Amino acid sequence: MRTHIKLAAALLGLAAIISVTGCSSGTSANQTPDAKAAGTITAIQSKGVLTIGVFRDLAPFGSIGSNGQYVGYDVYFGDQLARDLGVRTEYVGLDAQGRVPALTGDKVDLVLANFAVTAERAEQVDFSLPYMKAYQALVSPDDALITDISQLDDKQLIVTRGTSQQTWFTQNYPDIEQAVYQTQTDAYAALKDGRGAALAQSNLDELAWTRQNPGFTVGIEKIGDPTLVAAAVKKGNQSLLDWVNEEITTNLPDHFFHDDYQATLEAVYGPEADPDDIVVERGQIGQ
């Protein structure tokens, strides 16, 4: 199954959100930066650890591998950031609704957890330039395949709490009954148990999951506008944000995210998938 992701005009709107909230430099005249504040570059280098929030159960992006270590596309990126900063990594497992609180509560310095950029989230955290792109999608059983949202009338839609899919369906299809689960693992288990007609999640996640779970198909691969995936820092943590953006635009090795794809995603999606449909290099959309 090929992941046919084409950027639309709405993607430029999301890029504008990032450019406004995540790419500024310096501080305003009435702000006094605190170099020792939690999560700043100075503080991270002082303690010798970059603490990164990743998903604990969303393979192949962030999950705990057979050796007990975190693995995945986001982890590959996090490891490189720590190497370039000259510190070690410490990963903190998160679920979707825990991403913002982990930053606002100073539990992590950085979140790399398949974090889709939205205007609402950009009011709570600062996003970096993007490093991946995706669509929302629906996966359902082959023997009761959902290929149109209208088929969800009088049925339950499975969502994970705190995801953009939960928000999007609440706003755009409020009459569709949602079965809300705390974690991605619980949501997919509910789908396998027949506790809902379909599950809403990123098409990247669902296409990977269906390759490992015969009997289920992504019946709708593109719902709503395309989304950008980016790193996130605590609101106002300009030093770390600027450094991550410089890594993305300048300091990472050439074709870094294609190498990341090859190391972590290629075996999952198979040879028919095109990494250019997923990967964003140097923070540049559509290039």
What does this structure look like?
This protein has 287 residues and is of the alpha/beta class. It folds into two domains: 9-134 and 227-277, 3-Layer(aba) Sandwich (D-Maltodextrin-Binding Protein, domain 2), CATH 3.40.190.10; 136-225, D-Maltodextrin-Binding Protein, domain 2 (3-Layer(aba) Sandwich), CATH 3.40.190. The chain has helices spanning 9-22, 41-47, 73-85, 99-104, 119-122, 164-172, 184-192, 203-212, 238-251, 256-264, 266-269; strands spanning 49-55, 57-58, 62-64, 70-71, 88-94, 110-111, 125-141, 156-160, 177-181, 198-202, 216-234. The model is unreliable at 1-12 and 23-35 (pLDDT under 50).
Topology:
Elements (H helix, E strand, L loop, with lengths): L8 H14 L18 H7 L1 E7 L1 E2 L3 E3 L5 E2 L1 H13 L2 E7 L4 H6 L5 E2 L7 H4 L2 E17 L14 E5 L3 H9 L4 E5 L2 H9 L5 E5 H10 L3 E19 L3 H14 L4 H9 L1 H4 L18
Parallel strand pairs: 1-5, 1-6, 8-9, 8-10
Antiparallel strand pairs: 2-3, 3-4, 7-10, 7-11
